Aspartyl/glutamyl-tRNA(Asn/Gln) amidotransferase subunit B (Sphingomonas cavernae), 495 residues
Amino acid sequence: METTSSYRIQGATGEWEVVIGLEVHAQVTSNAKLFSGAATAFGAEPNSQVSLIDAAMPGMLPVPNKECIRQAVRTGMAIDAQINKWSRFDRKNYFYADLPQGYQISQLYHPLVGEGAIEVTLDEKDPDSAVKRIGIERIHVEQDAGKLMHDQHPTRSYVDLNRSGVALMEIVSRPDMRSPAEAGAYVKKLRSILRYVGSCDGNMEEGSMRADVNVSVRKPGEEFGTRTETKNVNSVRFVMAVIEHEANRQVDVLESGGKIVQETRLYDPDRNETRSMRSKEDAHDYRYFPDPDLLPLELDDAFLEECRASLPELPDAKRKRYEGDLGLTSYAAAVLTAEAETARWFEALLAECGDQAMAKAASNWLISDLFGALNRLGLDIEHSPVSPKQGAELLKLVADGTLSGTLAKQVFEIMLETRQDPGVIVEEKGLKQTSDTGAIEEVIAKVLADNGDKVEQYKGGKEALFGFFVGQTMKAMGGKANPKVVNDLLKKALG
């Protein structure tokens, strides 16, 4: 169901609507930079991953990295965007201490990828409630700048060129978002797609994905207002905080008779505020022109077919398959497909179960038990102490009646601590569920004899006491009795 946001800012002069567009810079997954063979590993010593090209030494000529182009094309295909078979690199001219060339190689007039779109779910807990389609204007490939380090010396700034020349995809949305929640959902969905495709690791805290947040406000239905751009925001939470703060700041300025200046701003998460950095340039200020050292990119059909064939099943398609073929709820399907790692883990679990009929039990266990435990331990699913094979073995022990739900939880806790297989734990600890009717009948007879008054009350119509008898029987058998057998035998004993 397509929806529009009801998010509004209440000002002294009435309601204001916020208009948001995002420019997401995603570092391309590659073992080399866009125009050089230098490494791109995160956390390397400053200036240890810099080639002569990255340092802009005279006479050095750039050569495009085919893998970077391939990953950008695959990303475009994943959002069903137009792939331009002919594209061109431009020089974006500006001076900054961390930009050795004095220009950035980018794509303005003829980008590699044209228009596409992403559908986002606004309420993750109710995935069918509201969906919004957010347009993508373009994806272009460009090189990153270096980094200034201001904390190494009391009076000087140092320059680290490790990031200089790193390949970025700049994914430019249309100004289609109307609330912080929509923007947050968009960044999460985009990050999920990039991770599924494998074109970017999406690690915002490491700077391999960051967003420039464009915000303006207007009275509902009026023309777009003047926008500001807050640079290099590196978490979903901060993207949402920037929008909220900046929209409220702009409303305050306008309602006090001021004007919004088109400018670049920075976000200070400690104070939760944006600050002016510099006036915002227009394209003509950068004096773009075609890079004379680089020929246009011309992609042939065979290359495009290879890119398309290499794409995995994407989150939306996977979610529909989980709902349709596996019979999962829309919520469970949404949770399991939100991140590529979770979907891979679930599919490995289901493969180990060897029966798709166990999909519901497997998804419930993964979402409730495993996620709960990982959250408690501060771990992600890739570092789970329990493997998909062990999880499947535990589920099979419940399915075949060896373990009750209660016993399975005990076994699971021991698995988390010891990393042992569940079968080993069951044997060592003697935790098998019993379905021995003779033993259970004996315990039931004693429970009923010890609680004659309650038996009379039950027979007199107080049927809620049945749960009491079940509980007493299970307690007497140390939780090892088969609950179904206990229920059946109790009904028979109580007449």
